[in-house]
Amino acid sequence: MNYFMRTIISITAFVVVGMVSQAMATELVVVSWGGAYTASQQNAYHQPYMDRTPGVKIVNDDSAGSAVAKLRAMKQAGNTTWDLVDAVASDAMMLCDEGLVDEIDHNSALANGADGSSATEDFGDFIVSPCFIPQIVYSTTFGYRKDKVSRPMKSVCDVFDLKSFPGKRSLEKKPINNMEWALICDGVSPSKVYDVLGTDAGVRQALAKLDTIKSSVVWWTAGAQTPQLLADGEVVVGSTYNGRLFALIEEQKQPVAMLWDWQVFDLDGWVVPSEGKNKAEVMKYLRFATDTQRLADQAKFISYGPTRASSAPMVGKHAKLGIAMAPHMPTDPNNAKTTLLFNYEFWADNRDDLDAKFNAWLLK
Amino acid sequence: MQKNQENIPLVTADGTPLKISLARAQRRSKIIAFLMVFPLLLFITIAFIGPIADMLMLSVENSIVKKILPKSAEALQKWDEYSGQLPDEEVFAAIVEEIKQAKASKQHTKIGSRFNYESSGFSSLFRKTGRKVKKIKSPPFKDGLIKADKRWGEIYTWQVIKQNSSNYTDGYYLAALDFKREFSSGNIKSLESKDSIYLKLFFRTILLSTLITFLTFVIGFPLSYMLSTVSTRISNILIIFVLLPFWTSLLVRTTSWIALLQQEGVINDFLLLVGFINEDGRLAMIHNATGTVVAMTHILLPFMVLPLFSVMKTIPKSYVRAAISLGAHPWKAFWKIYFPNTGPGIGAGSILVFILAIGYYITPALVGGSSGTFISNRIAYHISSSLNWGLGSAIGVILLGIVLLFFVLYHRIVGINNMKLG
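Output (structure tokens, whole complex):
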């Protein structure tokens, strides 16, 4: 065999091997929220899984914010390119109701807890929809500038107290959460908040309370805005997701403290698009990525609480900072003295209407 | 003479009549011309006309009700919604059966969300009924359904369903123009001023876009004039500075304005340093309409400068010199001779900036606070967040109408041919 032939054959072999290995690698498109959150998933779930399963490559897509709209559009177009989506509980319910994501048999599809409990026992009430595989508990809560207040803020009602705590506040540009806080601080009993908010008088009452601080509010639309506004000293106190505030306080060492009072809990978890193309592979991944150890591992990178009861005792120290993570979890007993749980049914019914009223109020 | 010509037609060298030969040659060149523009035509149809037609459809489309509840919608036609009586058992039987089917095909919450756009509470009504409907097995369906959720026993529920069951709806346009249909009487009522959203936002969008266009003109005109008068070498360098913002990400530019304009920002710090303001008097220049206007004027400035510059480049300097030498005051020479010649550039620049401004949404969302957001922010909200695509489309169609209206107005006043894009 001459030199030329040998070269040809070796090139061909190279190309063929390359193509075969390419064909064997399954690409899973995992949709999540980007930033520190996707990074925590990459570190706790994706990378360990890829290390164990050489044939699988996980590709991150950061468009979870518009997951419902995009999944609907993909189904209409008949080409669903996503394999797994990270969704908040309310979106997961909507997607499940519409059949855009698969129902899961949690006990057979997911691993038992490290303590031997079945998946349904271990996740407990967090399985809010048959399609939903809970991952983390997060909360929307306040952080304030320690150096710009005369005394530490203790109550969510301090946000509404311009006299004792002058300066700007940042609130999300949505009725959700703001209306609840306004009513609680206007003397409504927390257990009756949604009964009151369901009436026209209740909506007026909440908006009237918000009116008292309206001129001092900076409205945010992206979760990263409040940390930036706090760091710049542009606002004294602001609401955002607790993990963002943790990063601001512990990683960036800003003079900011948490105000956990009446934090609003919400859940975030996985849903499997029903038209996905690699469902068998996704289920294998999910069994691994949602086991007790992996959920506890995620808490090393971000301060969101694991949803498995069996993971809680295993939450350890932050991977880089080396500080104990348990006291930074929204679910920690010290932080969770007063909490609200996001009321899915109420907001599914009233979101359109309250949103219109809220926006009309903003324009006044 | 004429008769003679008709009898003996002109022919080409190969014997075919000249008329036919000419038509053939013209047809060929027409086909070639068509083939050359065909890719563009195809692209515009797919990427532009198609989506706009789709948007028009979405804003009136309501076939979902007839698709999921065909029999109930049919049976409801016979019911007099102002009689004060609940519909017959026939309607209840039909809707029980259809909700069962919808539940099986996972459509029941979709129809719930559709009605929820018209009246709050329908989302949970259909979700809850979907859960319980299996248990309603035998007549009377009326009692069964009311037991599943007492709202089925309210006449209002049925009025909403009946009045929204045709294949097309005006509901989205009514909402987009701040009207409300009262289902208990069927009357259309305009919202009180304190509840109005969209009309205020349309008005604000037009007002601020006009202001932004005017500001880009005020800043852009002297700049372009200078660019067109200095030597080519210098003007090339300066043009790069004008274009620089084009090469920077929109988000970077917007966030830099935040760093500059915020109350703890660079400009306020400077004003404080020179004693122009005191600590309590820091100016609020961002998270309000001022922020939107400043940031967008900066971002859209090149769209004004470039057409102005290219037009000014072509105006011979001798015109103004001639006017002055004939005795005109330099100011009058500028105003009467130079300025009118820049008209096509001003027209092109203004219409570019205005149309771009009216549809902007990222910058207003980031720096606009509550007084500087635009109507497009509501469109984005309804498309990606509230998922009320019908309302989003209706607002979009109205916005498109406004842009076209301004375009027609412009054509009437200035003339569309009198525009030079560079």
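The mean pLDDT of chain B is 90.
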